[in-house]
Amino acid sequence: MSDQAIAITPNRLSLSDDGLALLFTESRTPRRFLPLPVTDEDLHAIWELTRWAPTGHNSQPMRVVFARTPEARERLLPHLAAGNDVKSKSAPVVAVLAYDTRYHTHLETLIPYNTTLQGHYETNIEERRRKGIFNATLQCAYFIMAVRAVGLAAGPIGGFDRDGINAELFPDGRYESLLVVNIGHIDESALRDRLPRLDRELTVSMV
Predict the structure, then answer these.
(1) Domains by residue range for the chain, with CATH
(2) Is 139 within 8 Å of 62 (Cβ atoms)?
(3) pLDDT, tens digit, 9 for 90 and up, residues 105-140
(4) Exposure string for 7-18, b = 16+ CB within 10 A, e = fewer
(5) pTM, rounded to two decimals
């Protein structure tokens, strides 16, 4: 990154080049995992990082189910698209990230100075859903970065039968699946060449 150095204001805390590489520039999406364990402590650390990242009204609508055992992962495999099931089968942990349709019931605790918001969302269902899915999706991205931050690899999967996953894990209908994330130690021998990224000139403008 030396020839692409980012100007940092003096005395402002920032990640080292190693930290930036871990989270962004050198991190890869795994196609296969090594047969190494992921501990409960690892998973707790991932959530502890994820929960501190910002959401609208501090709403925190994302929920996580960690499939830890082979039996639990096998329940998910039939609902994954062809090819994705192979990736998940090698992962020691598969996380299902979901949106809580009743997330607003926690708002009195999460944003106590706004005493009307919980009631507002109780009656404005479409707005509640739209903002909830947006913020839960935002949390999905934080979750991926948290997995990387603890030294593990994250393989997000959008190709799956949402109705099937919901029926398998959330039969009461309160939670709705958004993303599946494979978690583990990456098998670098299975990686393809890294795909290109769009240049700044194509994606960024200053006004």
Answers:
(1) 28-186 (3.40.109.10)
(2) yes
(3) 999 999 999 999 999 999 999 999 999 999 999 999
(4) eeeeeeeeeeee
(5) 0.93
